[in-house]
Automatic annotation (TrEMBL):
Pfam families: Granulin, Inhibitor_I29, Peptidase_C1. This is Zingipain-2. Residues 346-403 form the Granulins domain. One of its GO terms (cellular component) is plasma membrane. The lineage of its organism: Eukaryota, Viridiplantae, Streptophyta, Embryophyta, Tracheophyta. One of its GO terms (molecular function) is cysteine-type peptidase activity. Residues 114-329 form the Peptidase C1A papain C-terminal domain. Belongs to the peptidase C1 family. It comes from Cucurbita maxima. GO terms for biological process: programmed cell death involved in cell development; proteolysis. Keywords: Cell membrane, Disulfide bond, Glycoprotein, Hydrolase, Membrane, Protease, Signal, Thiol protease, Vacuole. It is found in: Cell membrane; Vacuole.
Length: 431
């Protein structure tokens, strides 16, 4: 709170010095809050966010008024957070892993017939833009996007696969929301003989325990992966001509946070800290660009996309986009659909239906004498023997009839209405 009070004073002084402009900024901020569904925990917090918004407004206005840039900025969905906050929450490419990047088992192939323009979205090989939230797992979104692309190209079926499975289960080298690298994600999928779908193993926006039952649902497979030689834009172009390609970039520039449209040309560092997906390329007014899919939601950039300058004259590429490119290889068909799961075995004599969890209702010296069934898969059984909670709301609070989970900052909880193991009290509902 002391830190927030300090920001409150700074914001207040800023508003005093700029009182004539504050009225317009405040009105604009209110409109922006309504448009983006923003609300704040206190008047103090809202005033602080107004100050951040005003500072970002000045940055955006200064850039756009220069009139000589190939791209424009806007007060997008991230205009009320500082640049430091944004960098802390929205990146996630591991520099440590990049420095020890394994040698890819396949050599990059060449593609001689490179079309002048290409957009894999128009060919049905790109899923909808996703949002990593404050989880630093951009590496998983980049990897799944590449897997989704090559799977559609090889099978004709566009399937959204699970970032959360990679976040929870790919822990040999990658660190979930703490960062990772696409090469290791490909290695995980190859070793696991496939990956589950987004629908079956949905994104939670935080680290979780690996759901072993989902590991066996291998819906989409890949057979290998290859790295594009660093700083070789010609081979990167040839790879993109065949499929969407994962790349690392520097995504921590302030202009990147507030990007709106146009061809992003920097200036920016080549210190790679973010992972995205190249899904095509084109040209506009004589300037070549990559079509890049990000994982910051549709309210950033051009509905979640950015055009980044290509053929900039720098071998590393704008923001280092040519430095760390890789793609999965798929030659084999996907496995046939798994048969419907059978009953869940509780004991020798007792079982629950498929997709349910066995909960012990009565035990004696560690031996369960009576079982009940929770109508949820991989649920947490509460100690009172009468309630259960979903795996992602694992804290039981039977006195208030709630299931809780701790949020990313560790200070607040979110709750769901509790359900008894018999499954007779209705569906889960948000409070």
């Amino acid at each position: 709170m002391a830190n927030l009070n300090f920001h409150f004073v700074i914001t207040f002084l800023f508003l005093l010095r700029h009182f004539s402009a504050t009225s317009d900024i405040s009105e604009l901020f209110e409109i922006w809050c309504t448009e983006h569904g923003k609300s704040y925990s206190s008047a103090e917090e809202k005033l602080y966010r107004l100050g951040v918004f005003a500072d970002n407004y000045e940055f955006v206005t200064h850039h756009n008024n220069q009139g000589n840039s190939s791209y424009t900025l806007s007060l997008n969905a991230y205009a009320d957070i500082t640049h430091h906050e944004f960098k802390a929450a929205r990146l996630g490419l591991s520099s440590a892993l990049r420095n020890s990047r394994p040698v890819s088992p396949q050599e990059p192939y060449l593609h001689q017939d490179v079309p002048e323009l290409l957009d894999w979205r128009k060919k049905g090989a790109v899923t909808a833009v996703k949002d990593q939230g404050s989880c630093g797992a951009c590496w998983s979104f980049s990897a799944t996007g590449a897997i989704e692309g090559i799977n559609q190209i090889r099978t004709g079926s566009l399937i959204s696969v699970s970032e959360q499975e990679l976040i929870d289960c790919d822990r040999s080298y990658n660190s979930g929301c703490g960062g990772g690298l696409m090469d290791y994600a490909y290695q995980f999928v190859i070793k696991n003989h496939g990956i589950d779908t987004e629908d079956d193993y949905p994104f939670q926006g935080r680290d979780g325990s690996c759901r072993k039952d989902k590991l066996n649902r291998k819906v989409v497979t890949i057979d290998g992966y290859s790295d594009v030689p660093p700083n070789n834009e010609e081979k990167l172009l040839q790879a993109v001509a065949i499929q969407p390609v994962s790349v690392g970039i520097c995504g921590s520039e302030r202009a990147f946070q507030l990007y709106s449209k146009g061809i992003f040309s920097g200036p920016c560092s080549t210190s790679l800290d973010h992972a995205v997906l190249i899904v095509g390329y084109g040209s506009e007014n004589g300037v070549d660009y990559w079509i890049v899919k990000n994982s910051w939601g549709k309210r950033w950039g051009m509905d979640g996309y950015i055009h980044m300058q290509r053929n900039s004259g720098n071998s590393e590429g704008v923001c280092g986009i040519n430095m760390l490119a890789s793609y999965p290889i798929k030659t084999s068909p996907n496995p046939p659909p798994s048969p419907p799961p059978g009953p869940t075995k509780c004991s020798f004599l007792t079982s629950c239906a498929a997709g349910e969890t066995c909960c012990c209702a009565k035990e004696f010296f560690g031996l369960c004498l009576s079982w009940k069934c929770c109508g949820l898969s991989s649920a947490v059984c509460c100690k009172d023997g009468r309630h259960c909670c979903p795996f992602d709301y694992p804290i039981c609070d039977p006195q208030r009839n709630l299931c809780l989970k701790r949020t990313m900052n560790g200070t607040r909880t979110e709750a769901l209405e509790n359900r008894s193991p018999s499954g007779t009290s209705g569906s889960w509902s948000s409070l």
